[in-house]
Amino acid sequence: MAKIRVEELAATARVPVDTIRFYQGRGLLPPPERRGRVAFYGEGHLRALRRIRELSRAGFTLAQIRRLFAREGGPRGRRARGAAPAHVKPLLAALVEEGVGARTLTRAELAAESGLPDALLAAAQAGGLLEPVRVDGEERFTEADLEMCRAALAILGAGFPLHELLPLAVDHARGVQAVADRAIDLFDDHVRKRGAGDATSEAFQRLLPQVARLVALHFQRTLVNRAMERLRASGDREALEAALGATRSARLEVVWR
Predict the structure, then answer these.
(1) What CA–CA distances, in Å, run from 232 to 130, 152, 223?
(2) What is the DSSP string of 114-141?
(3) What is the mean pLDDT of each run of 10 residues along the chain (257 residues)?
(4) Is 21 among the domain residues?
(5) CATH code at 18?
(6) How many domains does one find in the chain?
(7) What is the pTM of this model?
């Protein structure tokens, strides 16, 4: 493919020129070759654009695509310019299956089924509590988002003030995102790079529910222990005994479907 200008690349890839420049600004495309003040693009840029579109349609966010490209050597790397390597494809399929699932919802559908107002869902999305996937260019939410919304509604129904609960949830989400990124790095270094094909996909599917259970159980234990410490410090023996009774009878179950 001969070197072409950005307008020709946009026409060939069927994307707006502004989209190409946006992708470059996000680090998803390598910089063009410059001859004086004119920028020229090649086959690698066209393949990268097509791959971004393919992954976006599969439900990946641009941030996830950028991380994937970074692990493959960046958009300049050999693998980022072409199709996904064979050993990565099964893992991508597993990520889509676990992250998207069989059913997705629009935000309006999520509001209707969860019972939460759309304005509150918009605030949760802006704060990073809800992260939609893109399916055929449209923002969609998963069954996991629906379950989280229903749990949030139950918590609000217990009397927690929204203006205090929402910032707390945002802080928690930011901490979880940072830990998740480190966990993905560990998986990438110690599992994916040593495995291949279906074995990597199977390892991901096997470990994901165990990691979710570990995190949920640890959070429950920490929450209970800290609450007990607070009650002991307050000297409220009656409340402490009631809480101890509740923890003996309560059991957290983490179900992965």
Answers:
(1) 36, 28, 14
(2) H---HHHHHHHHHTTS---EEETTEEEE
(3) 88 90 87 90 91 76 74 50 47 53 79 94 91 76 88 92 92 88 85 66 77 86 84 81 70 56
(4) yes
(5) 1.10.1660.10
(6) 1
(7) 0.54
